[in-house]
Amino acid sequence: MPTLRFHAIKESLAYKPVYIEENVKRSELFGKNVFNEKTMRQYLTKDAFVGVMNAIQHGKKIDRNIADQVASAMKDWALSKGVTHYTHWFQPLTGSTAEKHDAFFETTKDGNSIEKFEGGQLVQQEPDASSFPSGGIRNTFEARGYTAWDPSSPAFIYETTLCIPTIFVAYTGEALDYKTPLLRALHAVDDAATAICKYFDKNVKKVSSSLGWEQEYFLVDKMLAASRPDLVLTGRTLLGHSSAKGQQLDDHYFGSIPNRALNFMRELENECMLLGIPVKTRHNEVAPNQFEVAPIYEEANLAVDHNSLLMDIMGRVASRHNFKVLLHEKPFAGVNGSGKHNNWSLSTDTGINLLGPGKTPMSNLQFLTFFVNTIKGVHTHEALLRAAIASASNDHRLGANEAPPAIMSIFIGEQLTKVLEELEGVTKGKLSPQEKTELKLNVIGKIPDVLLDNTDRNRTSPFAFTGNKFEFRAVGSTANCGNPMTVLNTIVAKQLRDFKTEVDLLIDKKGLKKDEAIFNVLRENIKSCRDILFEGNGYGEAWEKEAKKRGLSNNKTTPEALKSKVSKESIALFEEMGVMSKIETQARYEIEMEAYIKHIQIESRVLGDVSRNHIVPTAVKYQNILIENVKGLKEIFEEKYNAVSKEQINLIEEISNHIEGINVNVTKMIGERKKANVINDLEKKAHKYCFNVKPLLDDIRYHCDKLELLVDDELWPLTKYREMLFTR
Ligand code: ADP
Ligand code: MG
Q1: What is the pLDDT of residue 182?
Q2: pLDDT of residue 453
Q3: Can you give the residue ranges of the GS catalytic domain (predicted)?
């Protein structure tokens, strides 16, 4: 009997859920372990407080004296909470967060010791960068990088460590993380959007980008997960026949949350509260043992940090409830995968959501300006936006009839479609007083009512307008939101900048009034970006054909999609907006292509091992039992032998066919890998892995899964889907 599987099942059934008490109000817990504004007021001198607030709100530099004061205050605060260590906390391009703890503790010359933390240690550190992906930005022998404090994301305490959010850059200045380009993109969109807002309200001084993510995940019993080498090593199951019952009864979505999962959520949410992550929503998702957590939206940089932090904490909390949390986009074939919707909007320091309808015609014109320019920006750079969500794991989900296809399109609803159609009919040049009145009363004046009716949400769209925000739904559940948020904000910043140039030109050169100029440019923009708008079924084949006619990209695999990242247009876009230099863009391309190759390579090796060393021997064992059985039948039956042994003999043969299928394909796969590994050209290598190695994974899996249905359950070594998905 295969011990690991049955041992794991026994353990998982014996597990008694931990009950998490909640006797403190969430609002009292919220932000308790964050060096936030409230704590700063308490711990900082007035000068230091003003200095930090200026850095947060206006990006002003913090001088050394203030930094010393802040560091000292942070230390006092942290020590009062039992903290022993501090770390610069950053998000390298590995996809997870990084930290290196140093104790506050230091020895003094006289043999005593003290707790010390100074401005220099707060502001900058030099971790060895050589083991983080750099995309060849510098050679390992000169692999110096440094982390630098990002005051716009507050320091926090996790367990006994003070964590200081930082950027991570090479010594030569190039970004080596997700945060640096994101901050640059947020700066770019602030500049461009604020300039546009001034057409409508001179008091606007700053525009911030907001993000509300929705994180989907699976919870699987820790022992059961540990019994599956594929889950342990790749985060997904590379084989496993689907369970007789999956999600077909639709009985999990929004159903009552199983007890053990609920207690996990309670503890997770408590931790989030302490860390100032404003999680609000929790529910069951479509697949069995699949769930979602979502916060109240926040400023995008903070929201990205919070999501990265959350993904880290989830794993730790899960472990305390004997769960393994699976963030992979497709941990199980045949049931829904996981995504991470990115709800995005822009808002002013005067409190206006620029993607929400206003109360007056003028504020609605402002809304339309941002609405149309977002659409236009996405249309111009749709392939780049697709590239921003490309990864080996997300490839399993996109276009799999459960998630948006690889084609980027925008859903805006019937009503706003009509508004755009009317705007397309606006007269060229100066508008008559009647036309202006008509537009203000009957087109843009009607918008608030219209949006309330805009409830017919289209779940198949990768990028949908949902009343007061755009929802980018194609982001993968493992992704660092920094990447898609950098791209989206950069695209919109560029489009807003171009829009302003055109409007100003019409005002200066053609003598148009401001609103006339805006209407004129909007009209042209709508005309030129109509092709990105799609209200129909995004899962259908008809859309693929239609999208092709419209010239939209449809890059189904990561290597194809990533190419757009280094297109002439994309490089120029990032350079122009000051988000990434050409070197930085190319480095990221290389890092992501390499990550893709390595992912497929690891999956291929793991499946090769599991199928040949676990599945084939099991199949042979069972086949031998059948052979013994047939021999025995032959001894006792003489005439009837053929009839009574027919099925067994068929089985023996069937098993042989599948064993052959596995062995032939594993050998072929190893051969393909060998050929791919000697290729130096990254693009060619990735293509080889994508089109020659990856398809063999499916072929091998096919035979393994068939064997699972044939072989004695008692002999089967791998924990089955029904066990992982239904053990609560
Ligand atoms: P769902 O899409 O599941 O129906 P909601 O639309 O209520 O749920 O919200 C999903 C997420 O969108 C939440 O994280 C919420 O905070 C966020 N959100 C709501 N309004 C905005 C906004 N203006 N900008 C960005 N995110 C927003
Ligand atoms: Mg949503």
Answers
A1: 98
A2: 58
A3: 178-615
CATH classification (class only), 31-177:
alpha beta
Q: Model confidence over 683-697: pLDDT tens digits?
A: 999 999 999 999 999
Query: What gap in Å lies between CA 347 and CA 210, rounded to an integer?
Result: 7
Q: Is the CB of 353 under 6 A from ligand 1?
A: yes
CATH fold of the domain at 595-726: Four Helix Bundle (Hemerythrin (Met), subunit A) (1.20.120)
Of 312-321, 439-448, 502-511, 707-716, where does mean pLDDT reach its minimum?
Answer: 439-448
Whether residue 456 is predicted with pLDDT greater than 70 in this model: the reply is: no
What's the 479 CA to ligand 2 centre distance in angstroms? 16
Confirm if 219 and 289 have CB atoms less than 8 A apart. Answer: yes
What does R_g of the chain's alpha carbons equal in angstroms?
A: 29
Q: Could you tell me the two tokens for 621?
A: 């064992």
Tell me what pLDDT residue 450 has. 67
pLDDT (tens digit per residue) in 617-648? 999 999 999 999 999 999 999 889 999 999 99
pLDDT in tens, 377-413: 999 999 999 999 999 999 999 877 677 789 999 999 9
Find the range with the poorest average confidence among 118-122, 186-190, 654-658: 118-122
pTM: 0.96
The residue whose CB lies within 8 Å of the most ligand 1 atoms, and thus the one to mutate among 297, 456, 457, is 297
278 in contact with ligand 1, CB cutoff 6 A: no
Nearest to 272 by CA among 298, 242, 240, 307: 307
Bridge partners for 272 per DSSP: none
111-143 burial code (b ≥16 CB/10 A, e <16): eeeeeebebebbbebebebeebbbbebbeeeeb
Reported as a single tens digit per residue, the pLDDT across 536-561 is: 988 888 999 999 999 999 999 999 99
Q: How far is the CA of 346 from the centre of ligand 1 (A)?
A: 13
User: Where are the chain's structural domains?
Assistant: 31-177, 185-239+246-580, 595-726
343 lines ligand 1 (CB under 6 A): yes
The predicted structure's pLDDT at residue 132: 84
Task: Tell whether ligand 1 has an atom less than 6 A from the beta carbon of residue 242.
Answer: no
CA 265 → CA 259, 272, 294, 312, 314, distances in Å?
10, 10, 12, 14, 9
ipTM of the complex: 0.96
In this structure, are strands 340-348 and 470-472 parallel, antiparallel, or unpaired?
antiparallel
Mean pLDDT of the 574-586 span: 97
Give the residue-averaged pLDDT of 122-146. Answer: 77
The mean predicted confidence, pLDDT, of the chain is 94
343 CA distance to ligand 1 centroid (A)?
Answer: 6
User: Are residues 429 and 566 in contact, defined by beta-carbon separation less than 8 angstroms?
Assistant: no
Is 433 buried (19+), middle (13-18) or exposed (0-12) by CB count in 10 A?
A: exposed
Per-residue confidence (pLDDT) for residue 130, from 0 to 100: 78
Q: Which single residue is written with the structure tokens 């392939």?
A: 383
Residue 396 in tokens:
């399993």
Superfamily of domain 185-239+246-580 in CATH is Glutamine synthetase/guanido kinase, catalytic domain (3.30.590.10)
User: Which single residue is written with the structure tokens 């240690």?
Assistant: 121
Euclidean distance between CA atoms 662 and 182, whole angstroms? 45
Q: How many whole angstroms separate alpha carbon 291 and alpha carbon 219?
A: 8
DSSP string, 406-439: SS--EE--HHHHHHHHHHHTPPSSS--HHHHHHI
Query: With contact defined as beta carbons under 8 Å apart, do 601 and 686 qualify?
Result: no
Are 566 and 585 a contacting pair, CB within 8 Å?
yes
More confident residue, 460 or 291: 291
66 near 51, Cβ under 8 Å? Answer: yes
HSE-CB at 178 with a 13 A cutoff on CA atoms is 30
Q: 715, exposed or middle or buried, with CB in 10 Å at 0-12, 13-18, 19+?
A: middle
Instruction: Give the three-class secondary structure for 108.
Output: coil
